Amino acid sequence: MSFGSVTALAVGGMMGAGLYTLLGLAASTSGGMLPLAFVIAGVVAALSVYSYAKLGSAYPSRGGAAVYLRDAFGEGLVAGGLNVFQYAAYIIATALYAAGFAEYVAALADNSGQELRRVVGVGVVVIFTAVNLISSKLVGRSETAIIGIEMVVLVGFLAFAVTHIEPDRISQAAPGGTLRIFSAAALLYVTYQGFGVAATAGGNMVDAKHNLPRALYTALAIVAVVYVVISTAVVMLLDLTQHTDTVGHLLADAGQAAAGRIGFVAVSIAALLATASAVNATLFASANIGYDVAEKGEISRPLTRPVGRVGNMALLAAAICVIALVVFFQLSAVGQMTSLAFLLVYAAVSLGHLKLRAHTGARRGLLIGAIVANAVLFTLLLIEAVRTGPASTWITLILVFAASFGYEWLRRRRKSTNAKQ
Prior knowledge:
Blueprint: H1 3-14, H2 17-30, H3 34-58, H4 65-73, H5 77-108, H6 114-134, H7 137-140, H8 143-161, H9 178-188, H10 195-198, H11 208-237, H12 250-295, E1 306-307, E2 311-312, H13 313-328, H14 331-360, H15 364-388, H16 391-420
Antiparallel strand pairs: 1-2
């Protein structure tokens, strides 16, 4: 793979559903400082990109955080528990994208009821579970086209927006002050998280040691610029205090402010394409991670059993959990849980990277910076989740984290007991 192709892969992985699903939720916290929140999230993401780029360059034939964690912590409780939790994190992320898809369908239908959102959210999960059981390539092949359509819509949005913006609105105060800007940045962190997929391309890249980091940093810069420009336009188009009930589709509201009903529909269609593609891709990733950790014995081995032409039980287990999350949690809740989960995963990868530093050549200070930055954003977002409620959001995530390690501990204890017998 060339520098350009890996850069495109990273851009496609990062810039997608998160922009449409989390923009309004972050704006409700950061106010007119929304662009600054994107910048802060991008800076923290850059530290994790550094860690992943070094790992991807040093281990070009290996891929994914699951393998990096095993390399760092060994085949023990820590790596096992973290990998089970990572499987859960991808399941929660899938629920976020399914809930986002449902939100835009409801917006187009002008329906404010939760029942429609639940039905649509469950429906899109069922459809793409079936697609992954038959052939994940059915949607995977269209990824480039989807990104292209998104870019056309976003460029068109900006072209209309420049004639309607009111620069004075950029001074809209951040609700709650500086700390809430950082809380918004923590929520937006997940909009950059797709770089992990591109980091695994090192094994297929010419001169990966030099080209992989350049590709990841170039992609991050491109995505960050797009996010800052789009969020600045949104802030200058809308009075955010009047859109507290439509945060789930705030970008579509901005499209309407820029180009009327046509703008609303165009942005909504782009959002539907992006979120549907994300549901498909994240279900696929969940199935792969679930299969990997099941094959290593970190979760139930029956999850490796094949289902359909190319699917497995890990995919069905993930789909069932996603459906439960869509039914019982709203978009804001799964958005917070997703960002909290990935902040933990990326902090853990950088922590483990410290043990591999002699092989990767990474700078200790930057890895520590990544750990601290992820931990700080996690703490601030957790405080925001506790403060704004409902309690089920953060309690569920803590229980999932504890259960991941509890399950791994019990499995290892049972395995040790059986070995002695």
